[in-house]
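In the previous chapter we treated chains in isolation. Here, by contrast, the input contains two separate entities that must be folded as one system, with a combined length of 912 residues.
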Amino acid sequence: MARNNTVKADAHAPAVTALLANFAVNHPSRGWDDAVEREAHRTFANWVGCAIGPSHHETVEAALTAVQELQPSAQASLLGRPEKVDIASAALLNGISSHTWDFDDTHLKTIIHPAGPVASAVLALGEHLNIAGRELIDALVIGIEVSCRVGNAIYPDHYDRGWHITGTTGMLGSAAACSRLLGLDAARTQMALGIAASQPIGLREQFGTMTKPFHPGGAARVGLMSALMAKHGYTASQRALEAPRGLLQVFSDKTDWREISEGLGERWEAALNTYKPFACGIVIHPAIDGCVQLRNAHGLKAEDVAKLTVKVHSLVLELTGKKTPTDGLQSKFSVYHSCAVGLIFGQAGEHEYTDEVVNRPDVLALRAKVEAIVDDRIDEAAADLTLHTTDGRELHVFVEHAIGSVEKPMSNAQLRAKFTGQADPVLGADKAALAWALALDIAQQPDLHAFIDAAT
Amino acid sequence: MARNNTVKADAHAPAVTALLANFAVNHPSRGWDDAVEREAHRTFANWVGCAIGPSHHETVEAALTAVQELQPSAQASLLGRPEKVDIASAALLNGISSHTWDFDDTHLKTIIHPAGPVASAVLALGEHLNIAGRELIDALVIGIEVSCRVGNAIYPDHYDRGWHITGTTGMLGSAAACSRLLGLDAARTQMALGIAASQPIGLREQFGTMTKPFHPGGAARVGLMSALMAKHGYTASQRALEAPRGLLQVFSDKTDWREISEGLGERWEAALNTYKPFACGIVIHPAIDGCVQLRNAHGLKAEDVAKLTVKVHSLVLELTGKKTPTDGLQSKFSVYHSCAVGLIFGQAGEHEYTDEVVNRPDVLALRAKVEAIVDDRIDEAAADLTLHTTDGRELHVFVEHAIGSVEKPMSNAQLRAKFTGQADPVLGADKAALAWALALDIAQQPDLHAFIDAAT
């Protein structure tokens, strides 16, 4: 009884659970500017491609087979696949698929991958409820806002402690978005957030295993079920997030409550979302970007390259200095392989990191011509490339910010190329093109049927 | 990059994930002494009654209605109810029901309610797999061991921090038990524990809401699904519990690893389980016990009581000093009401804490004759009662340890009376009697059919 039962608790934290619930249900439809609206569509379309690409990966197959042991009803679709499962399982499985290649989106302030937990739940529930595309985008923007603002409040302490912040905030975004789709009032939405608050998902220790992509999928499922339970009168603490023993005080030692409340409904985290152009660690992206630029500007082919010298920050070689990778997974940690495929293919999607490509003779030959030099005057986010051609030219490019950064966002054409690379092998080019067009224009669709037909 | 990314991490923690997985699948069937075997059956039978009693409570109705939105298949039964749902949902719902009245079992070293997360999963999966009763008890003992040993390792720090330890360790016990039932090997069981480790459930902030009983149910569900995913090849960290960013180091600041390993398979936490005899806070139990003793020893009726004086530790009045409760929930925090029903009914089950009983004239009259006096020479776990009868006798009893404590365990007859009080109103007396007899002898049953028929 003498034990200190309330660790570092702030008893006067503002009522953010109620605040977020009220925001989630009462903020007007499309109550944001064109930039947010555009980024929300890009977020959705990028997420769709990332879910379709690995939809037949062993990670998804294993999770689907486990779900099928429950003999689920056929309520909602799986992107890239013919099966239907119940809405909660569809949220789980699409969420797993979309993060399997670690190729999805990033809210750089928090390293949250925001679409996975929210879009997975919204699409599954939305298909079942037969919503309009407008409602999907509204719920997506609101859900991302809830997750990312909670993330802003606890980052970096919470992440440093070892939690995988995508899954430990994502269930709140999913709960908020699903509550909105279900038409819950603010009081029930507050309960949904409260039920979800008891179920944070994800440890960084799982990185490199199938449980990493489980985190956004699990969070999507938790949020959806929390909203359904709240709909039917299930209760939770009204202060589940901010109470001295509420989630945020329990799993983070520092919480900046203003990150949740200030400018809520006025400035938008969804506008800050970014997308990975290359299917590998972000520190190699500037070097690949430079290779693609050189290739395209000068019409280079593999046989034109005599030597490539890449100057990078020491961190790049520390993390990705593998000279002779022998399989796909290893090749993601090789700046040499990455530069070679950038020069040969003009891209570095998941296909360029397969075992087959890693061991292609032309890739092996070009990789051997790449030299990486540490130069700590060069920023981590930059790269300096000098390429000598076999006919004696010296070509140079300095990449200050790689494509895909906030400073140099991917164009829609580039996003589409990324989408095509993932979706074409699964859906075929015609359906993939239709799925892309509908996803990027989803708010104008009267319902989700045409999109889902194209994307499954 | 300069941030301290590994908070207080112990990089040399022993490999407890592998240890527990190996134990869970390789420990022999009934590899323990008679005392453990007996307590395991009492644990199961007590849990069954606790799940049947509130099986039509609004908490269970709300959760079931939400689950039914998924149109689940009819794989497994709900105790006390006619519906069947998929195995994961059955684990969830039976787990919720069994903790709804907060009347279930307690592992006093950790305040874990051990049966809920484990038995709920084992019964649901076991029904589906058509297991023998022997397998059910084996899985229950193993699962409780895993949960409670992990609890021992992190208690009290983890609990003090605000986590509801029943749900934040229970998913591991459930995963271990279900892995055993599924016949997984040690490597896959290690994966099941790892998948479950990313999904701890429960905040103490939820106490007093429906989300408290959600915690054991949710943990049961998580463990079952983690085992199913591992069965189909889903992977997780091999060191998901003990790694520097593994679960135990992330959500507890102090972990005593020896609590997990020492004597594993030799001494058993299931042998230490206790059962609540009264449906109220544990600090009033000695006073109620004294009232029941006086009533039974002297054949007292309400009209025989002139005055009751109860001397208790100050904590008792601090927590349960409500003099004039007006409804059932308030009455659980009233030593006065509790003594009155103990004297009148000889028990204090959920029925004695209903609105109806709280406002009965005889209860109100007797309650007014109860005086509670603080005497801090009396231990928190004790009570000293002096009763004056209307015919001038002075009766006295000193309760050093209340019934239901480790020192004075409930007899099987008392457990049966508790079961009857919960199950008879739901099942009828005949079916309830059969359910009790089969539960208390479940390891001798060739399958679970007869028990399930009686208990639903």
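Confidence is low (pLDDT under 50) at residues 1-6 of chain A. Residues 282-399 of chain A form a domain with the 60s Ribosomal Protein L30; Chain: A; fold (CATH 3.30.1330.120). Compare these points with the single-chain example from earlier in the chapter.
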